[in-house]
Amino acid sequence: MINVFQPSLGNEELEAIKKVFESNWLGKGKLTAQFEENFAQHLGISKSLVRSTNCCSEGLFNSMKIFDIKPYDEVIIPTISFVGAANAVLANGSKLVFCDVDKRSLNVRLEDIEKVVTPKTKAILLIHFGGIACEIEEIVKFAKERNIWVIEDSACGVASKYKGKSLGTFGDMGMFSFDAMKILVAGDGSILCFNNEELANKAEKIMYFGLESKSGYSNTVDKKWWAFDVSCAGHRAIMNDITAAMALEQLKKLPSFIARRKEINDFYNKELSEVSWLDLPPVVSDEYKSSYYFYWIQCRNDKRDDLAHYLRENGIYTTFRYYPLHLVKYYGCKEHFENAEWASNHTLCIPVHQSLSDNDVTYIVEKIKSFDK
């Protein structure tokens, strides 16, 4: 089966993990700190604004505490979004407010947010679909004028930029994912970034028991290294040197991963543009740099499900990401969002990852073209 997502791991990652085992220090240590520094350089921001955690979902859940979002506050989320974002809001006891998206790009627009914003809106938690920037500048400007926090879920945009600036660094907080289905894979793990050190420091305390002073090997300069103080009821959500060792090697390979994904993206654009019953991802200007996390096609007819089954029968796995959250009964939304619902019935994400061979990509295109619509 040709997978939608697939990691690219090699001997370099194995050797890096072996060295961690040999060091006898498996927890959060020097390699984790090194990865934070290297990823900050990758983003083009100061290391002081970056913190690591064990997964991107921790960033979503902790964002509620970092920004002191209360139960009576409203948080806006595009309905085409990751389930963890909605769960984070509800777990905090806050009011979840969905909005629609553009039906072609599947990205939230300012006009979608304006329709649902109220005086109770405390934060906007958005994604950049497939690694292509949403209207982030306009949304941030709008939010700042109203003292609304902007939280960027940039799990899809590990190497994405807009006007030369990394996605995830426009808002008040951004987060990146390194789980098994992402581009840069470390088994799990995440980087969080902030627009000021105060927020970064607050996040660090929340994610490690609220400790003001670290005990153990990381604090050997203290005369009583076993002593500590606590400033908040934090929990434990940290990255470790095993995942950091993998992540450091993957970060070195990231430019080649993105280059290969772009090749596949461009090949799909060229070959599938000939298919009269398909729409392809919208063309964006040179101001945008994508991570090419998704490649999606949209059937102009009602045969999307038939196409998905046909491709699976021929050894090609496809999916739709992300299922509209307002349609999930648990969330209790009674609104209808026309664009998201149309996209949900017509959109299919096809394989795009750096492990695909030229033969794989050609085969995928041939099977889509041969589908009897």
Please give the structural blueprint.
Blueprint: H1 11-23, H2 30-43, E1 50-53, H3 56-66, E2 74-78, H4 83-91, E3 95-99, H5 110-114, E4 121-127, H6 136-145, E5 149-153, E6 161-162, E7 165-166, E8 173-177, E9 190-194, H7 197-206, H8 241-272, E10 278-279, E11 288-289, E12 295-299, H9 304-313, H10 338-346, E13 347-350, H11 358-370
Parallel strand pairs: 2-3, 2-4, 4-5, 5-8
Antiparallel strand pairs: 1-9, 6-7, 6-11, 8-9, 10-12, 12-13
Helix pairs in contact: 1-8, 2-8, 3-4, 3-7, 8-11
Task: Tell me what you see in this structure.
This protein is of the alpha/beta class. The chain has two domains: 11-250, Type I PLP-dependent aspartate aminotransferase-like (Major domain) (Aspartate Aminotransferase, domain 2), CATH 3.40.640; 254-370, Aspartate Aminotransferase, domain 1, CATH 3.90.1150.10. The chain is 36% helix and 14% strand. It contains eleven helices and 13 strands. The strands form three sheets. It has a seven-stranded mixed beta sheet with strand order 1-9-8-5-4-2-3, with helices on both faces. Strands 7-6-11 form a three-stranded antiparallel beta sheet, with no helix packed on it. Helix 2 runs parallel beside helix 8 (241-272), helix 3 (56-66) packs across helix 7 (197-206) and helix 8 (241-272) packs across helix 11 (358-370). The radius of gyration is 21 Å and the shape is globular. The two termini are 23 Å apart.
